[in-house]
Write a structure and sequence with these properties.
By secondary structure, the chain is an alpha/beta fold. The chain is built from 14 helices and 16 strands. It has an eight-stranded parallel β-sheet with strand order 6-7-8-9-10-11-12-13. A four-stranded mixed β-sheet has the order 3-2-1-4, with no helix packed on it. It has a four-stranded antiparallel β-sheet with strand order 5-14-15-16, with no helix packed on it. The longest helix has 17 residues.
Length: about 425
């Protein structure tokens, strides 16, 4: 039994994936120092009481700058083009204060649902200028107590067709943007956009994260160009593509070939269930396709994948609470993943997006930051099945939120009846 009086905090009786019995987790200076069946130390402790403990959730694809816009829409929006046009019309009037306030709403939701790492995509172009980037940079600083925020700047409405956008992207990268994104399907020359973004990624030594192949026609894909450039430029393991809804329309043999191409090129895939399900297949009058890329099958083929939030309460996705556990559950339902695949669905919002974002210090392991979420369930897979609420969260060993478990207040006669029945 390890004994150490230098622990700052011990989590007692925590249930971790892959361990048959509950363990204690000792923390010092915000990092995990020991994991053992029983730690003896004179320090504060938190009794987890056998509940499931996970490393904090990782949201690899969120749009904070255009979240919480439903009250401004003025009309009903349908498909992808309508949503892009609606936000394009609004963002000219975005102010730093406005973006900060709406982004903060989502960050607070996310922290309270157990997220401790996040990549947000920030639109940079002549309409938005660098105002959204300035606001999200301030959020990164102000919410570091609850999560680590990574900024991925990208051209939502095109690059080669939108003069001035590339200069703004370069300026954002010079000011410390963490990653670079793309959206080839809105560009008049998609392959030229892909080429220019790889050039910039090499110049600034940043990861790339594209919005890609966001329709249901599998006869052609920008995915091929991204895989080709990733392999040719030695950017393997530093490129992700989001949505890729075309993959939902491929037969198994064709999907296997694409999976091999992605794995060999080191290109990761992010599936955005809420947005993809909401926007795809809208032209169908019946038997509407799901439009959901099969992340669990890609993972089985060796592709790094994640499931993420994307949009919250805006024309792209008019609902959301930034809960990644709920998103993983939604994915499992729509993709018809049974209990034997529940752990993979948990991985899609924890370890796999951490790998996608190249987070080398992620996970419940000695030496890593004590970024933990406690779920009101006996195991992570039980929590996925029931969408069990996170009840406690910690960032670097400091408590970031609490949510007491619900208590039922039955009348006395109902309680007495229950006692007699037992």
């Amino acid at each position: 039994m390890p004994t150490d009086s230098a622990f700052d905090l011990i989590f007692r009786r925590a249930t971790l994936a892959g361990r048959p019995d509950a363990v204690d987790i000792g923390v010092r200076a915000g990092r995990i120092k020991a994991i053992a069946p029983r730690l003896i130390a004179d320090c504060p402790s938190v009794d987890i009481a056998g509940r499931a403990v996970l490393p904090g959730f990782v949201d690899s694809h969120v749009h904070l700058d255009k979240a919480c816009l439903l009250g401004r829409c003025g009309h009903v929006h349908g498909g992808l083009k309508d949503a892009i046009a609606a936000v394009a019309g609004m963002k000219r009037d975005f102010t730093v204060e406005d973006v900060y306030r709406r982004g903060a709403q989502v960050l607070e939701m996310a922290i309270a649902k157990g997220t401790t790492r996040m990549r947000t995509h920030v639109e940079v172009d002549p309409r938005a200028g660098l105002r959204s980037f300035e606001a999200i940079t301030a959020l990164k600083r102000d919410y570091a107590w609850g999560l680590d925020l990574s900024l991925c700047v990208f051209p939502q409405e095109g690059l080669t067709n939108d003069p001035g956008t590339e200069d703004l992207l370069v300026e954002a990268l010079r000011q410390g943007a963490d990653a670079l994104g793309g959206c080839p399907y809105t560009d008049s020359d998609p392959e030229a956009q892909i080429d220019r973004l790889f050039d910039l990624a090499e110049r600034f030594d940043v990861d790339l994260d594209f919005h890609l192949d966001f329709d249901l026609d599998p006869s052609w894909m920008h995915l091929d160009a991204v895989c080709r450039e990733s392999a040719a430029r030695g950017h393997s393991g530093r490129v992700a593509i989001g949505h890729v809804t075309k993959l939902s329309m491929l037969p198994q043999d064709a999907l296997s070939r694409v999976a091999d191409r992605l794995a060999q090129a080191g290109v990761a895939v992010t599936v955005l269930p809420a947005t993809d399900l909401y926007l795809m297949g809208r032209d169908a009058t019946h038997a509407a396709p799901r439009g959901l890329a099969p992340a669990h099958r890609l993972v089985a083929a060796g592709v790094t994948c994640s499931v993420a939030t994307n949009n919250v309460l805006n024309p792209f996705t008019p609902f959301g609470d930034a809960s990644l556990l709920r998103m993983a559950n939604l994915y499992a339902n729509a993709a018809q993943v049974g209990p034997d695949g529940f752990q993979t669905c948990i991985d899609l919002v924890t370890s796999l997006p951490a790998r996608l974002m190249n987070l080398s210090d992620y996970g419940i392991a000695v030496g890593n930051p004590a970024d933990l979420v406690v779920l009101d369930a006996a195991s992570a897979t039980d929590a996925l099945a029931a969408i069990a609420e996170p009840v406690l969260g910690f960032k670097a060993g400091r408590q970031s939120f609490s949510r007491p478990a619900a208590r039922l207040h039955a009348p006395a006669e109902a309680a007495a009846s229950r006692v007699r029945a037992s």
